[in-house]
Structures are given as C-alpha cells and as structure tokens.
Amino acid sequence: MPIQFYKYQGTGNDFVLFDNRSGQIDRTRYDWFNFICDRRFGIGADGVMLLQEREGYDFEMLYFNADGLPGSMCGNGGRCMVQFAKRLGIDKAHYHFLASDGDHDAIITGDEVSLHMRDVLSVELHKGQYILNTGSPHVVLAVDDVMAVDVNRDGAQLRYDPLFAPGGTNVNYIHIQGETMHIRTYERGVEQETLSCGTGVTASALVSALMQNLPFGTHEVPIRTMGGALRVQFHYHADGSFTDIYLIGPGTFVFSGEINA
Fold first, then answer.
1. CA 241 to chain centre
2. 218 with 247: CB under 8 angstroms?
3. Do 94 and 63 touch, CB atoms closer than 8 A?
4. d(CA 188, CA 101)
5. Averaged pLDDT, 1-9
C-alpha cells in the first residue's frame, strides 16, 4: 500500500515525516524505519518521525533514529515537525506538543521555528568533558580546530565509553571564535557525524556559558554547524541551572512522495 511521506531538513539534519493521525503506520516497524533512512536503498535520512494525535496537545512527535529504533528528543526534528504540522493544516500562533522527553512549545516566525527545550538543572565536568542532558544525553569537548577532528573515529570511541553505558551518548566538538561557536557532532543511533544536531547545539551553547564565565542572566549564542546556522537563547542561573532555553532555526521542506508501506 503506497503511503505519503514528506522529507524535511534542519541545517542539514534530514528526516522523513509521516502524518500518522489515522494510526495506519505501526510504530514498532523498526526494520522499515531503518530501510527508509538508508541512503542507497531507501529514501535516505538521519531519522523518521510520526505525527500522532494526542489528547491535550496539538500533536505528538514520535522519533526514530536511522537505525530504526526509538530515539530520544531531536531538536532539529522538533522544528521540522512544527513546520510539518502547519503544512498539514494545524495552523497555530503557538504550538504545544509532546515528545519523548515531555512537553514542548514552539512558535513559527517567517522561516524560523523557536523551539522551547527542557530545563537543564546541572552540568557535570569530568576530565575536561562537559556532560549534560538536553532531552538527549551529550558530552561536549572544546578543541582548537573542529575541522581537524576525526569525528567518526573519535566520536565513536567516546560514544561507547563505559562512562556512558549502557545507552551511550552523543559527542560534540566545539570551538568558540569571537561571538560564534563552531560545532561538529557524532550522533548515536545514526552512528556517524551528522551535519547538525539540535540537542547537541543546545548542550554546547549552555556549556559555552560555563567555559566563558558568562554573567548570570539571559544570553543568545550563535552557532555554526556543518549544515548551517542556529541560535540558542537561555537564562543562566546562579545555581548552575539553565531555563527558558530556545533552539532557533529553520525547518525546511525538501520534497514529498509515496513509498510502499
């Protein structure tokens, strides 16, 4: 049976989206989701998302990694999902939806989506590695030259480090140059470097507040990923926590088509 799909990307982090409000797609079809993400035999993507009906929300976002398995929160995917909802006729001034890490709010301004991320109550520093969870687990490392890092080799080693067992972690390499941060990310579930990672960008922006000893208060950090530019706004508190976190950037429609389900 052919079913409609929609391809979206957020700064190069790409996804295949389905309107599953009718429940026609079984959310446990992990092998099929993996096939869809295959860049040679399927459509090709870093992940698959299902837009679901959910009482009390505008929609529910179900995210599956490129390996086909259920994933944790995806920031770039969340922005794409909001744009997708608008395309489907869910047209709101303010969106309220459910994801794997809980409630999220978002607004669309022009081509950009401002996505409210979960609060981060603490950041752990372990041997020069900043460890935190922004809806997905992350480790952030500062380097002198992000382009010189072998992300697929070094990121994979750290992703599977026993320190992060059993689930592993995402790995971000950052360099702050002037007012802009440059970042490259190894994503678990995709198991390689992606052009952008929204929760990784968010984690890295918060870490930059610690690295640069920013004053407590509200800040906005511009970030350059391999796939484009994003911004993160947040409020930094004296107890080391972060609230009012917003990931800001595009969620862009690429193409649509049909695939046999």
1. 20
2. no
3. no
4. 17
5. 96
Q: Total structural domains in the chain?
A: 2
Structural domain range at position 8: 2-117+251-260
Cβ–Cβ < 8 Å for 88, 49: no
CATH number at residue 193: 3.10.310.10
Question: Residue 118's pLDDT is what?
Answer: 98
Q: What is the pLDDT of residues 109-145, one digit of tens each?
A: 999 999 999 999 999 999 999 999 999 999 999 999 9
pTM of the predicted model as reported, rounded to 2 decimal places: 0.97
Q: Which helix (H) or strand (E) holds 247?
A: strand 242-250
Q: What is the DSSP string of 223-238?
A: EEETTEEEEEEEEE-T
Residues 200 and 178 in one domain: yes
**Residues involved in catalysis:** 74, 197
CA–CA separation, 162 and 159 (whole Å): 9
Closest Cα partner for 50 from 74, 40, 147? 74
